Amino acid sequence: MAAVDYTDAPKQAFWVRNRHYLLLLPGVIWMVLFLVVPLLMMVYVSFWTQTTFAISPELTTKSWVTFFSSETYFGALLRTLRIWLTVLFITLIIGYPTALFIGQFVRNKTAQTALLVACVIPFWTSFLIRVLAWRPMLGKEGAINILLQKMGLIDHPIEVLLFTELSVIIGMVQIYVVFMVGPIAFMLARIDESLIEAARDLGASAWTIFRKIIFPLSLPGVVVGAIFVSVMVLGEFATSSALSGRKVNLLGNIIVTQVGSLKWAFAAVVGVILTVAMAIVITGLLRVVNLRREL
Amino acid sequence: MHQLRSLRWILALYTALFVVFLYGPFVVMGILSFQQGPEGGPQFPIVDPSFFWYKHVLGFAPPSRVAPLPIGEALTRSLTLAFATMVVSTVLGTLTAQAFRTRFRGSGFVFYLVVLGMMVPGVLLGLGMALVATNLGIERTWWGTAFVLHVVYTYPFAFLVMLAIFNRFDKSVEEAAWALGVPPGRTFRKVTFPMIFPGVLSAMLFALTLSYDEFPRTLFTGGSEVTMPIAIYGTFAVEIHPNLFAFGVLTTLFSFSLLAVYGVLMSVSVRKARLRGSGIQEDLA
To answer: What pTM was estimated for this model as a whole?
Structure first.
């Protein structure tokens, strides 16, 4: 009996010691097969040869050359980056004061949660329908124009509101600004009250307190929010196709059109460029703040 | 101090305006869903308020030039897909988070591998999966290629939620049960599961709603049988009608009832935990 226990012990210990690898296995296999393999495939296919309706695995850089030598496609890259920067900047400017109010001026935890939940409620509608609902808002006979005309602020309806780059930016800001507010408010709410009190006792002005204490401590939240917004805006195509009347083409829109006409290799090139742009943006943002240390 | 008080009011006013901005399209959608039918378009003014578009969505309206939304098939597919995604990603998320309770080599790598799933834009993942499928000769279907991508997207959320739950989890309770000779299965059912139940519920809610509304990943991998978001996306190309807004209002109501169920289950589990806690205290006294 004792002998059996003796030989069994190391065996059982091995399983107990390595049990977590067994638990990890299903998830890791799933992610490798359905996340890593498709992304690698995309990189590989971007070097394949494209014929009219098919691709063949003879390696070539032709699709890459087409992308960078075409005004339309390279222009789409620049437009995507421009819209991304604009949306990122506006979401930060618009979102920060709200986050400041929720995180610093509302001291009741329940009220804080209630305010954040109120911001999230519109998200319980289908994303696409939410985007479409901007059309009756911004159109020539839309809600905003009617309202402004009734108030006597304008004589003629503003036409640049819909089916322009502006409408795409408005739509994206409204959809993504909450992802900026959430993380910032979370970081602001964690700031130790006594820190601010100490600064006040030492005679610091409200502006100095904000500049020297509140803002630096909220930076991790800003970075997390910026990563969320960047990732989502860079991969966008629905908002631009719904609100620009297909006039504003982002990299995402090009992928969709190319896949639609079975230009797989070219779509893959655009996909790789998008991935690289995103990787640069995220590493850049992570340089600003060391997230693992701060969170 | 006086300065701060005025700042507080300014910020409060600003936040109120911000919320109005967030709700703008949402409210417009609600109002326009009562547009007169079937001639009324998706814009102001509302000629004669009616429930026409709600009847249209539910299939009770007389046939008109506006094609009905494929509620029956597409919605069933979306709900089935969301349900399957919910189950699989919650199980995977819980297993992985359970593994993370012990320190092990390569944990950083696994963490980033899983989190990558929610970071990679859907359009890229959809494209990659479509390329894999076409080249391996796999047929693209909503229950196959699209389903696995939905899990790639929602599993990281489930994982992060469960990780947060396990981080606050007092391990000694489990150890006490083992020490008292309670078998592992019973320990899990009676001790571990009730404690992580709120987390499991949140993870399920996340996965269900994300998958139900998911569409860039489904667009390239869903094949010819469309899910609800793809059906809505299809209407972008042609004219839009207020039936979409009526459908939006109905989905929102559905989401709220889901949220209500979540709230009820959550409070029941909290109350049970409290009762059990006081029961133990009484036993001790």
So the answer is: 0.87
